[in-house]
């Protein structure tokens, strides 16, 4: 814009040199230009409503009015699908590029009606489901209307059901798409492939290199890592309202509800029914229904009529047999009912099997073993059945229940392949919300025992108690495995003592000055901490002996993902007040250790500083209290494990220091601490602390054994 | 002069105003239609670059994609017997189309379970050490049987590991030797181990004899040749790979932050021409001599001087400057580009060294891909996008690096650290296919302690094992069972 202003300057500067006639001429010229510009501006601004209303017209346009494209009889035909296609051979990654969001862009071709030379339509223009599918894409983050930026192209030519289209002409329609380019980066959705009598397991429309999201792939037609196996959508998902039924034992152990089961299988199933009359139910199509009853929603056993899909909720296991095709819409109904599918369809590639762990939600039985199915299922433990029921229901909710769910899962799978380093994890795909919520994935999951040689770094937070601080430093420096001592000087008004005044110790001593007097400074992941193990110690904890500290470090090495500490505390549920209470008295249990003296992994400093949930960190700094409780919550929440209390000591501060704390002070302190627990529990949304009843002491502790032969003789008194 | 100024100010102000109006109008229009768009889609926070054209909302009542009676009619019109269809499948899908359903005889495993028979070694047949180790691992396993009539799976005693004709280990006349085995049965239920196939210049994946319906446990197998759920992709291991036990992973402790001195390293041969040369030839584009150190040498083979290009001498001197082991131990990521074949030794080396492998080997079916989720332990790159690799790995969050690194160690120790583990993993994968309903799920394979230590024959319910409480959000059971062995008392304990 500035450039254009400059450009305009040049014009008027010439004016004074000209004659009046010219001047008037120029002024008129400029006025015209000016007016023109204003007019354009107004036009851009004003007629918006006119233009948008034409937009809305486009939207409201009927499917009958879409432009018609005539396909000449001889128009080119794509090659047949290339079975050797893989992402690295047939897919053009350059179109997808590197972007910070790691998201592919999907373009949808506009809707056309294709007719052949004689004007006969190639197919039903668009089905309800395909329209829903394209709407889902266009509403998603993947959508782009800029064809030149797209990574994936979705034709609006509906090939969901091969039965409703003319194969050759549909292929010709595909070939004339503007960016077809042998089908590169084009994605076709098909749920019902093949036709009589062979029923191929992949769409028969020649499609060259296009990716196929197909329902009913067999292992011979599925190009692993290229195609996506999708479910066959069941229209009942939307039509029928079926309240969820929780997992657990159900009236029938095994149910078969499909209608047109091949006689050979039906024989096997009937044999099962005859043998286990009470627990097996084999249903069939109803033959004697009165007119007007929707028979799709009814199943019969002799004269008994059952409602479908409601009857599925009465069974623990439901058989899903292959029919003409491998993919069956019944799978969706079965999952929805929380019935564990027993899939009997040899070589079938299960829906979304690239990411979904079907072993947790289904039983796959070879067709040949259909007659043994009862025995196989009997061998499954009851609790596993409940897991599977829950898992089945979750798969339906997340990936089967609507066309939108199916579409987005398909695009996510392709997205995961293009940006594998940003792919969704196994847990994100497979864990139902209840498991996601209650499970913990420990960030330090590898069981390692850090070498003793590394040692630990002691961090002392101090404000101005220099004398006591020096005593702590002297005591801690005697611990053999100490590798460095870090003093966090939290007093901005006073300088730390001069170098010469500090105690002389055998390991490096480093003083870090902080910008603000905040408790969270003690948990900052300082670069100076070069060891895994951190000993947090208050500047008044002078009672701990060198043996006690060394022993604590040894225990921590065995449990590097836990807080290992000395002063133990407990949280209790106060039934009268209906809230949590903080307890420091003698108890049988412990659920926290105070970080006034505790070993832990440096990683938790990082988590405390950068990943503490909610406003806990600021809250602690504002209240100048409970940073230790917050750390206990954090570690327990992320690892799901309890603290480890070491050695029997109860008193940690010098006797004269504790004497100052009066009883009343003590009581307000306890109230505050209880408040902290309640606050943190509400922020975490749960009570992560784990209660334990054990403590770690040296093996020969209190044994009648010569002291000098013990590794840790001076474990101290209470 | 006054007039001049006045005109100037007036005109420039006017044009500025006009331009403002123009752009302002455009923006306002855009934002208005944007907000309408959001209202319409009913979702918040979605940004659509140009929101005017999206998929239209049709007012029509559209027809469902499947007429209500189509499926039922189709299913009931199928007359071919499923049994016949299965038989037909197994006669059509042979060779490259082999699957368990068509090329494997499940009935052999019915009676005695999963038993593996190893052919007796014949006199005069030389067997290289690696293959000796494989056979010893099978013979030492709980699957082994010496009775072929009990066997479900057969393993040759002929060394099939090295099928490179130029190699000294190459076994000649394998074709006729195999055909003369009376239990061969056209390879049905046989498992053939192979590390190297093909030779210079094209390195095809042909093992040089007719394997019939046998399964392949093969290194460097490509996705095109890999028969899913039939073959097993195994890692390339050297002849020094220990038979049992094996070295631990190099990671002794987790460092925070998890970054090491080098971001990405590689040190290896560069092929000047021929298959697999493109990627390694291009590595120097990414090398920055600081935290991305990718070193190649042309010095290999007899006549390298003859083919050498302008970069060779400079590359060779750089190459000598760095110590491979030092780099391995001090790098966050290790590049694993394809060599002549798809797999390379770099892969296992990086895994053991807790250096997260960055794969640049398009079309390599990664080892044990059927059960291992490699996204949890490696970065799967694309050879075509070599230049993006540095920005890709720099975009990976530290928490993810910490997890990737620990997973490399878990996988190394669970499945790769010895020949025995590689062989047992291969056998367990095959066993899981045969007894599908009592097989391990993906969680078991990818979480500590791994598939070799969790036997689904004990229970197929994860909560019955002590390892998965945290993953499933379960609590250990609150009751225990006391077991008292009633034995003769020992004098002293």
TrEMBL record, chain A:
Record Pfam families: Exostosin_GT47, Glyco_transf_64
Function: Glycosyltransferase forming with EXT1 the heterodimeric heparan sulfate polymerase which catalyzes the elongation of the heparan sulfate glycan backbone. Glycan backbone extension consists in the alternating transfer of (1->4)-beta-D-GlcA and (1->4)-alpha-D-GlcNAc residues from their respective UDP-sugar donors.
Names of the cofactor(s): Mn(2+)
EC supergroup of this enzyme: transferase
Domain Exostosin GT47: 101-378
Self-association and partners: Part of the heparan sulfate polymerase, a dimeric complex composed of EXT1 and EXT2. Could also form homooligomeric complexes. Interacts with NDST1. Interacts with GALNT5.
Pathway: Protein modification; protein glycosylation
E.C. number(s) listed in UniProt: 2.4.1.224
Family: Belongs to the glycosyltransferase 47 family.
Chain segments annotated as transmembrane: 24-46
Membrane topology according to the record: Single-pass type II membrane protein
Localization in the cell: Endoplasmic reticulum membrane; Golgi apparatus, cis-Golgi network membrane
Cellular component, GO, one term: Golgi apparatus
Protein's name according to its UniProt entry: Exostosin-2
Principal location: endoplasmic reticulum
Residues making up the signal peptide according to the UniProt record: none
Catalytic reaction annotation: 3-O-{[(1->4)-beta-D-GlcA-(1->4)-alpha-D-GlcNAc](n)-(1->4)-beta-D-GlcA-(1->3)-beta-D-Gal-(1->3)-beta-D-Gal-(1->4)-beta-D-Xyl}-L-seryl-[protein] + UDP-N-acetyl-alpha-D-glucosamine = 3-O-{alpha-D-GlcNAc-[(1->4)-beta-D-GlcA-(1->4)-alpha-D-GlcNAc](n)-(1->4)-beta-D-GlcA-(1->3)-beta-D-Gal-(1->3)-beta-D-Gal-(1->4)-beta-D-Xyl}-L-seryl-[protein] + UDP + H(+)
InterPro entries referenced in this protein's UniProt entry, alphabetically: Exostosin, Exostosin_GT47, GT64_dom, Nucleotide-diphossugar_trans
GO biological process, one term: protein N-linked glycosylation
Any one Gene Ontology molecular-function term assigned to this protein's record: N-acetylglucosaminyl-proteoglycan 4-beta-glucuronosyltransferase activity
Glycosyl transferase domain location: 456-701
Keywords: Disulfide bond, Endoplasmic reticulum, Glycoprotein, Glycosyltransferase, Golgi apparatus, Manganese, Membrane, Metal-binding, Signal-anchor, Transferase, Transmembrane, Transmembrane helix
From TrEMBL, chain B:
Transmembrane residue ranges: 7-28
Protein name, entry field: Exostosin-1
Annotated GO biological process: heparan sulfate proteoglycan biosynthetic process
Organism: Neovison vison
Gene Ontology MF terms in the entry: acetylglucosaminyltransferase activity; glucuronosyltransferase activity
Residue runs in coiled coils: none
One GO CC term on file: Golgi apparatus
Residues annotated as domain Exostosin GT47: 111-395
Lineage: Eukaryota, Metazoa, Chordata, Craniata, Vertebrata
Annotated InterPro entries: Exostosin, Exostosin_GT47
PANTHER family according to UniProt: EXOSTOSIN HEPARAN SULFATE GLYCOSYLTRANSFERASE -RELATED, EXOSTOSIN-1
Family label: Belongs to the glycosyltransferase 47 family.
Alphabetized UniProt keyword annotations: Membrane, Transmembrane, Transmembrane helix
């Amino acid at each position: 814009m500035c450039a254009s202003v400059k450009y305009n300057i040049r014009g008027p500067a010439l004016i004074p040199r000209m004659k009046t006639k010219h001047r008037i001429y120029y002024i008129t010229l400029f006025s015209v230009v000016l007016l023109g510009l204003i007019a354009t501006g107004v036009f851009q601004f004003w007629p918006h409503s006119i233009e948008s209303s034409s937009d809305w017209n486009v939207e409201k346009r009927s499917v009958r009015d879409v432009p018609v494209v005539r396909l000449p009889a001889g128009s080119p035909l794509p090659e047949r699908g290339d079975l050797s296609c893989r992402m690295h051979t047939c897919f053009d990654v350059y179109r997808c590029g590197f972007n910070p969001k790691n998201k592919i862009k999907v373009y949808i071709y506009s809707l056309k009606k294709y007719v052949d030379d004689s004007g006969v339509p190639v197919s039903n223009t668009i089905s309800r489901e395909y329209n829903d599918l394209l709407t889902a894409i266009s509403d998603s983050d993947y959508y782009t209307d800029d064809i030149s930026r797209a990574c994936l192209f979705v034709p609006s030519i509906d090939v969901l059901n091969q039965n409703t289209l003319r194969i050759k002409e549909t292929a010709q329609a595909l070939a004339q798409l503007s960016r077809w380019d042998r089908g590169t980066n084009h994605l076709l959705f098909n749920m019902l492939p093949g036709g009589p009598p062979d029923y191929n397991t992949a769409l028969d429309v020649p499609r060259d290199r296009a990716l196929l999201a197909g329902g009913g792939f067999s292992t011979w037609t599925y190009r692993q890592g290229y195609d996506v196996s999708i479910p066959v959508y069941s229209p009942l998902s939307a039509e029928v309202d079926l309240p969820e039924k929780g997992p657990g034992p159900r009236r029938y152990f095994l149910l078969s509800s499909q209608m047109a089961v091949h006689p050979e299988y039906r024989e096997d199933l009937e044999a099962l029914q005859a043998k286990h009359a009470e627990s097996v139910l084999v249903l069939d199509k109803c033959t004697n229904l009165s007119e007007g009853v929707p028979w799709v929603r009814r199943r019969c056993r002799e004269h008994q009529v059952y409602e479908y899909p409601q009857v599925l909720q009465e069974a623990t296991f439901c058989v899903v047999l292959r029919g003409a095709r491998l993919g069956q819409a019944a799978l969706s109904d079965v999952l929805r009912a929380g019935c564990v599918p027993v899939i009997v369809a040899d070589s079938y590639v299960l829906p979304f099997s690239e990411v979904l762990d079907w072993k947790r939600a289904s039983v796959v039985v070879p067709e040949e073993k259909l007659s043994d199915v009862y025995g196989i299922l009997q061998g499954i433990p009851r609790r596993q059945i409940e897991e599977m029921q829950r898992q089945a229901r979750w798969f339906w909710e997340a990936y089967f229940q609507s066309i939108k769910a199916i579409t987005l899962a398909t695009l996510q799978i392709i997205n995961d392949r293009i940006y594998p380093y940003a792919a969704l994890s196994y847990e994100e795909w497979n864990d139902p919300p209840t498991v996601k919520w209650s499970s913990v994935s420990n960030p330090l999951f590898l069981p390692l025992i850090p070498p003793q040689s590394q040692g630990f770094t002691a961090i002392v937070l101090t404000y101005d108690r220099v004398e006591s601080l020096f005593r702590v430093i002297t005591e801690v420096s005697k611990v053999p495995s100490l590798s460095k001592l870090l003093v966090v000087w939290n007093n901005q008004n006073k300088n730390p003592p001069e170098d010469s005044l500090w105690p002389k110790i055998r390991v490096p001593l480093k003083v870090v000055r902080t910008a603000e007097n905040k408790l969270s400074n003690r948990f900052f992941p300082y670069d100076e901490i070069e060891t895994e193990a951190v000993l947090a110690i208050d500047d008044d904890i002078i009672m701990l002996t060198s043996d006690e500290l060394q022993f604590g470090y040894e225990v921590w090495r065995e449990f590097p993902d836990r807080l290992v500490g000395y002063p133990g505390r407990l949280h209790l549920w106060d039934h009268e007040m209906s809230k949590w209470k903080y307890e420091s008295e003698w108890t049988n249990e412990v659920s926290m250790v105070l970080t006034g003296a505790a070993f832990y992994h440096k990683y938790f400093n990082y988590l405390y500083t950068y990943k503490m949930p909610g406003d806990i960190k600021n809250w602690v700094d504002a209240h100048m209290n409970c940073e230790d409780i917050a750390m206990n919550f954090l570690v327990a929440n992320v690892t799901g494990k309890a603290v480890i209390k070491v050695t029997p000591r109860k008193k940690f501060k010098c006797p004269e220091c504790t004497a100052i704390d009066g009883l009343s002070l003590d009581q307000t302190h306890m109230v505050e601490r209880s408040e902290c627990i309640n606050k943190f529990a509400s922020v975490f949304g749960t009570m992560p602390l784990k209660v334990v009843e054990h403590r770690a002491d040296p093996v020969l502790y209190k044994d009648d054994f010569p002291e000098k032969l013990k590794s840790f003789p001076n474990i101290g008194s209470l | 002069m006054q007039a001049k100024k006045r005109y100037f100010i007036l005109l420039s102000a006017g044009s500025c105003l006009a331009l403002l109006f123009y752009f302002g109008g455009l923006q306002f229009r855009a934002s208005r239609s944007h907000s309408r768009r959001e209202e319409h889609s009913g979702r918040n926070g979605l940004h659509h670059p140009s929101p005017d054209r999206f998929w239209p909302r049709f007012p029509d009542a559209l027809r469902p994609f499947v007429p209500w009676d189509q499926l039922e009619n189709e299913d009931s019109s199928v007359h071919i017997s499923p049994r016949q269809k299965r038989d037909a499948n197994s006669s059509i899908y042979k060779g490259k189309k082999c699957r368990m359903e068509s090329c494997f005889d499940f009935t052999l495993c019915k009676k005695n379970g999963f038993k593996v028979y190893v052919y007796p070694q014949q006199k005069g047949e030389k067997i290289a050490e690696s293959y000796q180790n494989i056979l010893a691992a099978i013979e030492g396993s709980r699957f082994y049987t010496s009775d072929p009539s009990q066997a479900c799976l057969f393993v040759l005693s002929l060394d099939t590991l090295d099928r490179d004709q130029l190699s000294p280990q190459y076994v000649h006349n394998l074709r006729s030797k195999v055909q003369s085995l009376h239990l061969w049965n056209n390879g049905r239920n046989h498992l053939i181990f192979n590390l190297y196939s093909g030779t210079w210049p094209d390195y095809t994946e042909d093992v040089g004899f007719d394997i019939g319906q046998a399964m392949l446990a093969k290194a460097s197998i490509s996705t095109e040749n890999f028969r899913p759920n039939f073959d097993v992709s195994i890692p390339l291991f050297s002849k020094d790979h220990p038979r049992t036990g094996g070295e631990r992973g190099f990671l002794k402790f987790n460092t925070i932050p998890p970054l090491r001195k080098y971001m990405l390293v590689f040190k290896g041969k560069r092929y000047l021409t021929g298959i697999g040369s493109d990627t390694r030839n291009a590595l120097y584009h990414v090398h920055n001599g600081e935290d991305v150190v990718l070193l190649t040498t042309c010095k290999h083979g007899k006549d390298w001087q003859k083919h050498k290009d302008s970069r060779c001498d400079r590359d060779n001197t750089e190459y000598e400057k760095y110590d491979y082991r030092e780099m391995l131990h001090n790098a966050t990521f290790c590049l694993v580009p394809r060599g002549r074949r798809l797999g390379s030794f770099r892969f296992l080396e990086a895994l053991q060294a807790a250096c997260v492998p960055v794969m640049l080997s398009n079309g390599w079916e990664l080892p044990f891909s059927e059960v291992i989720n490699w996204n949890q332990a490696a970065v799967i790159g694309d050879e075509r996008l070599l230049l993006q690799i540095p920005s890709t790995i720099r975009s990976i969050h530290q928490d993810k690096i910490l997890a990737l690194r620990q997973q490399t160690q878990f996988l190394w120790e669970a499945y790769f650290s010895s020949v025995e583990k590689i062989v047992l993993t291969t056998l367990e994968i095959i066993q899981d296919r045969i007894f599908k309903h009592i097989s391990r799920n993906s969680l078991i394979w990818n979480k500590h302690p791994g598939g070799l230590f969790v036997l689904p024959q004990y229970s197929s319910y994860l909560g019955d094992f002590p390892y998965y409480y945290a993953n499933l959000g379960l609590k250990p059971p609150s009751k225990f069972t006391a077991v008292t062995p009633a034995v003769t008392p020992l004098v002293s304990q």
